[in-house]
User: Fold this.
Amino acid sequence: MQLSLTDQLQWIADSTSILVPELILVAGILSVILLNIFRVVHFRIYGAVAIASVTLSGLSVLLHWHTDPVSLFNHLLRADDFSSAYKLLFALGTLLTFLLSLSSGTSNKPAEYCSLLLTATLGANLLVMSTSFIMVILSLELISISTYVLAGFHFTKPGAEGSLKYFLFGSAATAIMIYGISLLFGLSGTLNFTSSEFVSHLIAQHSSLVMLSGFFILAGFLFKASAVPFHLWAPDVYEAAPLPVVAFLSVVPKLAGVAALLKFTLAINLFGQSFFDWQTVIAAVAILSIVVGNLSALAQKEAKRMMAYSSIAQAGFLMAAMAPLSLQSMQFMIFYSAVFLIMNFAVFTLLQQFETTYKTTSIHALAGLAKTALIPSVLLTMALIALTGLPPTAGFTAKLFVFSSIWEAFTGTGKSILLWLLLIGLLNTVISLFFYLKIPFYLFIRANTLTEPASAKSFTFTNLLGLVLVIALFVFFFYPALLMGWLNRINFVL
Amino acid sequence: MKHLLSLLIFVPVAAAFIGLLIPSTQKNTFRYITLSVSLIQFVLLVFVIADYQAAGTEFRLVEQTPWITLDLGAWGTLQSHYFVGLDGLSLPLVALSVFIMLIATLSSWNIDDKVKGYFTLLLILNGAIIGSFCSLDFLLFYVFFEFMLLPMYFLIGIWGGPKREYASIKFFLYTLLGSIFILMVMIGLYISVQDPSSSDQLIHTFSIMHMKKGHFIDGSILHPLATPSLGPFSFRGWAFLLVFFGFAIKLPVVPLHTWLPDAHVQAPTPISIILAALLLKVGAYGLARIVWPIFPDQVIYFHWMISFIAILSIIYGALNAMASKDLKILIAYSSVSHMGFVLLGLVSGTTEGISGAVYQMFSHGIISALLFALAGVLYDRTHDRLIINYSGLSSKMPVYFSFILIGFFASLGLPGFSGFIAEVMVFLGAFKSAGSNHLIPAWMAILSVSGLILGAAYYLWTIQRMFFGKFADKTNSALPDLDRRELLILIPLAIAAFVFGLFPQSLIDVINPFAKQLTDLFASLTNPY
Assistant:
């Protein structure tokens, strides 16, 4: 379909007005850079600008909620329920990241730091809206390149190592993905994977090339989601990067990757008419991620590294939430994503509290600290319990929903892989308890063998932030309808 | 009063939160808060029993309000209620909980380390235990059930003995594994069961009442008539196995019992008391409340396996108790043996057996509390529990010795004590079953009696080794006889063991309707004519 120039211009103008949340982010990025030109040095000023921009961006998502999908820029992007929900989560995640960064004090190169975080968020926003492979690559790279730099923001040797590993893995994953996209483009004749053309052409193709290119494209998404087998970068990056960046990495790009993966999987699965069973692939990757993540986390001695493996396993749970590929499961996946965001930020916020007070996040160094830092210890325990998925936290509710929809899908389809996913997912809850409990175990049960630790201030901003997040976990357990009632209205269109 | 059960459950939880506001230096305040909570619960219990006697329905003092209602579009509605109530199974256990928590509080009086944390956790545990005994909604039950784990983990892990770290995590992992099994079945059940009250809309419910009444959705895989199977068993079979072993870990049965000796030995005395008297009962309660009524067909199908596990627990537990060198391990294994009787009574599917099982839960709660309190008395004085290190204690501590006699004889099932009534009823049930519905093979029923003989053997041998002969104490500690606080703990327990041994009728009257109903359910399945 060829459009005239005026039509195209009109379309661009119309589309731009719908992109307000993203434009606000761009304005934020530009103003941070401008402030840098005027040699502003205070981190707080940059932080305030950045916070204002993500908050406004989130608000504008809420105000311009697109219940009816709107296609933008000649089918490059689409604003709809699903992407709006995720954009809201990204805004929340980035906001929390900035609050966490500000409470941790100064940052060298504050302008770069803030603008890169905003850029990554912009990329995440665009990724969940993408309907074209071109946009997928562009937005994925926008996230990647900003986060490569952020990963090394401690400017230490391990930081550089982590960042470089991340970069190499990321480039390889992107290259594989682009190769897959070029194959698929050749087979389907279109880059728009939500178009009927894409589906009808691929249904006709019974070539194993479709399967192969599908696998190649998965690489890019799985890398962002840090799911097995593209998870190897995570531990090194998490260990060496600044804590707020780790918190950000573990949530925003991951959720963006998983959300985009859902859209792509539904497309390549061709509404169940694909000759190759992509549901099995998703379930298998979910199982692998859960098992590998949890088993590797068992042996970790460093809290951030342990959380890296935990986030690999959680990526598996997010994919498990997606595996039934039904409308219901998609709503549960958004619920899980929201709860995961809260849990993970709660854990990192409280780890930050320990890091600023005691200058370490080694699990052994936490021994006996509950005596001097009782409030963060109790809150951290609650957040970890939520990650394990035990009541009375929203982590339990989220897992309950996910496993219900898997069970339901299993009864519907009778696919044994879904039963395995259910069994292995649940059994892994027991394994995960072992390492999640390690931190409370050292905090409360192991006595401190070293010198008397410095007493910590109880009433800090970080603790308050942690408290709010933990309370949110309780609230969503007792009243899941607060969130779920709203998610239920979300409709999904491919 | 309208919300008696809610008060009973949430008074301790509220007190725990109030306690958080008090500075941790006020050690005595925490002790008295916990004690007064227990006393308030005792008063409430009197009202509960009065109200219970007055009402005539199957479930009494019922409170039901919607908790989670989620409209899931085409998928129907997810519905969970805050639904509590008492029947002949739960009333004795709720009463036992209130009583034991009072005893445990008194027994905690000499805990002097991190008092605030200890009593806060104890209060939360209190609410969770009573909550799980009252819940009639599976999700609510599960939440209370899980909520017991964390306080217990910390109570063993922080205030326990030298190997507490290992014991606490082992306890947590075993029980969590069990609860994951239960969770799987819970999800399966709620997907398969509907609330029939609304005809135009599909309501998936967690209510145990609806599950029990068999309100299964046609074609769901846990439907009693569903045919799909996986490997050797149907889905119902698998679900039964999961939920059975989920609760059996908690009971515990051989071979899933290994967490119990570790947890008991390392736990401080009051926590041992709660663990033996109440937490094991939660496992048995789960079987009687959830597994038996919802999967009666599978109980019948797997009757041989269940009976065998019961016998194995009875005999293996007793043999282990005999070989134990440590007094607390001995009592722990005797618990395994005695909980085997509970399982045997339940699987008999007869009124005598099921009543006996519930009676045994109650009676073992009292007697095991007494035994662990006695073991704690000795440990407080010497910090040593090895049987071999003592002899002739009866001359040095005569009052203590007389309580030991009461505890041991009650536990081995001497007539006149509550344990005797319970075990006799279980035997009656087992033999009747062997003769009528054949759920328990005759040889197993006969073999189960050997549990009594072994019990007598290990207890009498222990008395002989520790209390008779020439006085010797290899730990060289001062051995004063019981003080007033210890008497205050031991006397009520000893009296209770006597009272329910001599006057069993009132308790049997409470239990009987429940046992009768469950028996009818089994009878309808075993005798189709």
User: Anything to note?
Assistant: The CA atoms of residues 233 and 239 of chain B lie 10 Å apart. The beta strands of chain B are 60-71, 77-86, 203-205, 229-230, 233-234, 390-391, 472-473. The longest strand of chain B covers residues 60-71.
